[in-house]
Design brief:
The complex is a heterodimer of chains A (240) and B (240). In chain A, a hairpin with a 2-residue loop joins strand 5 and strand 6. Chain A has two domains: 71 residues; 122 residues, Protein of unknown function DUF881 (Alpha-Beta Plaits), CATH 3.30.70.1880. With 240 residues, chain A is α+β, with helices and mostly antiparallel strands. Chain A is built from five helices and nine strands; from the N terminus they run H-H-E-H-E-E-E-E-E-E-H-H-E-E. The radius of gyration of chain A is 31 Å and the shape is elongated. With 240 residues, chain B is an alpha+beta fold. Chain B folds into two domains: 55 residues; 115 residues, Alpha-Beta Plaits (2-Layer Sandwich), CATH 3.30.70.1880. Chain B is built from six helices and nine strands. In chain B, a hairpin with a 2-residue loop joins strand 5 and strand 6. Chain B is flat, with a radius of gyration of 35 Å. Classes of the chains: A alpha+beta (240), B alpha+beta (240). The interface between A and B is large, with 99 and 99 residues. Strand 1 of chain A pairs antiparallel with strand 9 of chain B.
Chain lengths: 240, 240
């Protein structure tokens, strides 16, 4: 009788424990897969760093060879009048295309999303208290209208291929993510730029009415870096 | 004799049971730990897609930069070879100048692309910001050359409403509806971006009651920029 009882208890315990182990093994399997996912994550992080470094190196080297090319080009064209004129024009074109670092006088605009509790804001619309890609496009357009010769937003040079887009809630320029606060630098006639951008009824004044924090300042020493991407046109052909 | 046997048996069973229980319980504890860790790794694994995205971005940037680097090195090589042999280098500068003129908009160009017609209708006028948004979306989709009513859009072109929205000034020229916007670039890409359901330009503007017509063309012709391109306020800054 005693033996039977022991057997039954044993049987039940074994059953429970086996059941528990089975459940745990299942968990182990999923745990294993997440563990390996952490490994791929780390692997991916390493990969990202590796490629970033490769890019940085390549970019450094590109900067050097572009400089060499310019020197070689100058050397090659200096004895020929028409060639050196062409060299000059090429330089101007590249500057207009945003392929050179430039400096000069102009204005700096700082934009920041409105404070949430800003009671001064006339607009009840929350969306208007945030800076959207359309706002940046409008400001860039006003800068161009005031004769800006070089523009950059958060270190992204505006070129003739630049787009300012909004994907989800991420703003992108030249395919690079940027975010509020925005710093827009523009080189050109300082008086004209400042006057146009701060006049009553300007786009910036409208934004400011909505509660966006707008700050415009003049500067005589603005540096704007060149476009870091690559322009590679494949579809346009010159009509002869 | 029988009684002793039974006792030994009993003790043995108890010991075995005890060991089994201890080992099973410790296994279970180990498992619980893993379960807790699983919750943490879940958050980390969420970053995987983002990591992959970043990785491919850096790869593309590296490849583009590397391509440009090779191109620059080749040009240096070409110049050096010509100079060594005392040959004329003007061919090379001509080629470079042609390419830069093409990129900047100083040449008439043709290629595959799209044509978009925007019309004022009884309820809705086309205004400057409609065109600005279209240009931005075309650039995002990789347009290499753009014109509005045969006025070439270059980097410095501004688009402004005039006379209380009755005209639009594009690059200081007064335009009236209909506005014909031409763009050259990868046709499939241009078309699919603009025609995205609901969020694409065409759908978005049709839904808001504006008149928009879209057309793809095997051959689009775009005239060169009709004006002087230069700068007054910029100074080139050399790379360190």
């Amino acid at each position: 009788m005693n033996k039977k009882q022991i057997c039954i208890t044993l049987g039940i315990m074994c059953f429970i424990l086996t059941f528990a182990i089975c459940i745990q093994i299942r968990t182990i399997n999923t745990a294993n897969s997440t563990a390996s996912q952490t490994l791929t994550d780390n692997g991916l992080r390493d990969e990202v760093l590796k490629w970033k470094e490769k890019y940085d190196n390549a970019y450094e080297e590109l900067k050097k060879s572009e400089k060499t090319l310019e020197e070689v080009r100058q050397k090659a064209t200096k004895n020929d009048d028409s060639s050196s004129k062409k060299e000059e024009e090429l330089k101007i074109n590249n500057t207009l295309l945003g392929l050179t670092n430039v400096k000069g006088s102009g204005i700096i605009i700082k934009l920041q999303d409105a404070n949430e509790n800003d009671s001064l804001a006339t607009s009840d619309n929350i969306s208007k208290k945030l800076i959207h890609n359309g706002d940046l496009l409008a400001v860039v357009n006003e800068l161009k209208n005031a004769g800006a010769e070089a523009i950059e937003i958060n270190n992204q040079r505006i070129t003739n291929t630049s787009s300012i887009t909004c994907e989800g809630n991420v703003t992108k320029i030249n395919g690079e993510k940027i975010g509020s606060p925005f710093e827009i630098k523009a080189i050109g006639s300082q008086g004209l730029l400042y006057g146009q951008l701060t006049r009553p009824g300007s786009y910036l004044s409208l934004m400011s009415d909505d509660g966006i924090i707008v700050e415009v300042s003049k500067s005589d020493d603005i540096s704007i870096e060149k476009y870091k991407g690559v322009v590679n046109f494949e579809y346009i052909k010159a009509i002869k | 004799m029988k009684k002793i046997e039974f006792k030994v048996d009993n003790i043995a069973v108890s010991v075995v049971m005890f060991i089994v229980c201890v080992s099973l319980i410790s296994v279970m504890f180990m498992q619980f730990k893993t379960v807790e860790e699983t919750d943490i790794t879940e958050i980390e694994s969420m970053r995987e897609t983002e990591l992959r995205e970043t990785l491919s971005e850096w790869k593309t940037k590296y490849e583009q930069t590397n391509e440009k680097l090779e191109d620059t090195k080749n040009k240096i090589e070409e110049y050096n070879q010509k100079m060594e042999k005392n040959e004329e280098t003007s061919v090379l500068i001509d080629k470079e100048l042609e390419q830069s003129k093409l990129n900047i908009g100083k040449t008439d160009v043709e290629g595959e692309g799209v044509v978009i017609k925007l019309n004022d209708n009884d309820d809705n006028d086309i205004i400057a910001s409609d065109l600005i948004e279209l240009i931005n979306e075309l650039r995002y989709a990789g347009a290499e050359a753009i014109s509005i009513n045969d006025i070439r859009i270059i980097n410095s072109t501004e688009i402004v409403d005039l006379d209380n929205f009755s005209y639009i000034s594009v690059g200081e020229q007064r335009l009236e509806s209909p506005y014909v916007v031409k763009a050259i670039g990868n046709q499939t890409y241009l078309s699919s971006i603009l025609n995205l359901k609901d969020s694409g330009y065409i759908d978005k503007y049709k839904n808001s009651g504006k008149s928009v017509e879209f057309e793809t063309k095997k051959k689009v012709e775009i005239l060169k920029y009709n004006g002087d391109m230069n700068y007054k306020y910029l100074e080139i800054e050399e790379d360190q």
